[in-house]
Amino acid sequence: MDDFAETLAAAQGGDEAAFTTLFRTLNPVVLRYLKVIGGRGLAEDVAAETWVAALRNFGAFTGDERALRAWLLTIARARWVDAVRASGRRPEVVTDSPPEEPSADDVQAAVELGFSTDWALSVIATLPPDQAEVVTLRVIAQLDVPEVADLTGKTSNHVRVLTHRGLKRLAELLGDPAAV
Amino acid sequence: MTQVPEPTPGLDAQLDQLLDAALSSQPSGSGSLTRLEALLAAAAAPAAGPQPGEEQALAAFRELVVEAAGTPSLAARRRRRQVSVAAIASTVVLFGSGVAAAANGSLPRAAQTTAKTVLGTLGVHVPGPNVHAGRHPDQRGSSGDNPGDNGVEPTPPSHPSHPAMPVTPANTGTPPTPGNSGAARHHGNPTPHASGHPAPQHGRPTAAPTVSRRRVPTASRAFLNLRVMPAARRAITR
Q1: Do B65 and A12 touch (CB under 8 A)?
Q2: N or C: which end of chain A has fewer CB within 10 A?
Q3: Across the A/B interface, how many CB contacts are shorter than 8 Å?
Q4: CATH architecture designation of domain A4-86
Q5: Which of B19, B32, B36 to mutate to test the interface with A (most CBs of A within 10 A)?
């Protein structure tokens, strides 16, 4: 975002237009992350709770756009864990039945039509939860290895390995020549 | 602990390259991972227009941020309250010490007259200017002549040339405000200490006043007795 510092300062001062700009830039990242780790059912509710929690301390936030993104995703992750625990389920098990991997035909169709965001997220969500989360944070949220490690509570080396495994698996699913 | 195998060279290098490209929103130039690259680009594509939950987020923003931006922070409110309390306390102390000085008639003539007029409207009786009060601060009247009838203890006369004994609010029964030693400044007097008036040291007996008296040596006293008594006896027996 251009002039992020100005936009942030204006939003913290109560400027609705500035806040709307921030929201429209950052909410897609939060929503997509929650869709991958928590499924579509929980994503929008938890995203709303994330923003309310963030707004309580919004005035005190200092940092750049990347730091704000990491902060929001940290809150989102905590809210997601709370929501899953409240529903009586273990956070590690996102769904009772993992989403089905796309068939070769599905992939071909998507290639011809062009990958949509929703389809891309659904493919990433078929990965094992740890890999799906790390790939989402690295690629969609564009956080670096130490930031992802802090957010997920993993070591940097583990984050690197999970990222590689996840990307490799995706390449295999998609039938990329390098992975086959 | 889960075994973490070493990443495979070759493909991993390509993945790193692809990842770097994805993070910088640039094409990787890799010909063998095109579908993966396209997938990642689609997953990270920017969204345009209103977002789901935007109205609720704006409502929360108005409640939590806009209103908070208009009201002072808790720390600011606390500081403002402390300043107000200190200002009120200073005013009370100043007023009290001024009333005390007026009650003693120790203000200069003009000030005493004004104080008598103003305080009189408030129902507080203070004496008029002392007959001995002059226009010069050195010619202030004696406070002992007009003790005042408002129950305020008379204070010792304060004199600018004796800064060690200024008028202090402690003498009027009003406790000084901590850290507000400037409140009792009067008529150019230096800022007094909290208890600028010398006070007896409790627990120690005060020294007995010494009277200058010539002591008669014992031997001379005996001599006087010998000389005086026979003369007194002769006077009595005459």
Answers
A1: yes
A2: C
A3: 145
A4: Orthogonal Bundle (1.10)
A5: B36
The per-residue pLDDT for range B29-43, each reduced to its tens digit, is 666 788 898 899 999
Sign of CA dihedral B165, B168, B172, B173: negative
**pLDDT tens digits for range A22-52:** 999 999 999 999 999 988 888 999 999 999 9
User: How close does chain A come to B9, measured CA to CA in Å?
Assistant: 11
Q: Inter-chain contact B52–A20, Cβ cutoff 8 Å?
A: no
C-alpha B238/C-alpha B180 separation (Å) is 80
Q: What is the pLDDT of residues B152-166, one digit of tens each?
A: 444 444 444 444 444
pTM surpassing 0.90?
A: no
For residue A108, give the chain B residue with the closest CA. Answer: B35
| In chain B, domain spans | 89-184
> Residue A138 carries which DSSP code?
I
Q: How far apart are CA B181 and CA A108, in angstroms?
A: 86
Query: ipTM score here?
Result: 0.87
Domain boundaries, chain A: 4-86, 104-174
CATH class of A104-174: mainly alpha
